Amino acid sequence: MVTTTEPRRSSRARQESVLSLYKLLQETAIESKPPSKALLDACNRQSTLAKFAQAMNGIVPMSLNTLKQTADECFGDGGWKKIDALRISVLKSARKAEPSLSPLAAARQHAADAERRNDEQFQTRALLYRAYSSALTLANEFAEDKPERIEKIKRLHALYADVFDLRRAK
Length: 170
What we know:
The chain has helices at residues 11-29, 37-42, 46-51, 64-75, 79-97, 103-142, 147-164, 166-169. It is mostly helical. It folds into 2 domains: 11-97, no CATH class; 103-169. The relative contact order is 0.08.
């Protein structure tokens, strides 16, 4: 038996949540009400929309399958398709509403994004290098008295030296 940390909600509570979600999506997509950042993030994927919660509107998180089933219960066949179409409309309307950047601001944004990506890649490479060095040290400790293993470790080190820029790092 699988236990969950969420209390099981009644069918009525799930239906009210789906109706509230539908109303919120409709207000945002059709009536051009600006979406909150949380709603916009939730609309990026079906599964994140299902996990979206907003207590003040009575929207509770649920699994995607439960959301689809409850939507079909509330709106009949095609209920989920209505909600999904609204989700996509919210995304499209939010993209249209984004202010366009001046060329200078766009260039600055692009440069900042590139710098952030470079920093992330550097951190990842540093972590991989650290793991590689630890594994190499451990392998050398185990291979101290076996020359064939030491030779294999040297070959692997030479193979990955370019990847990690080991020649420059040492």
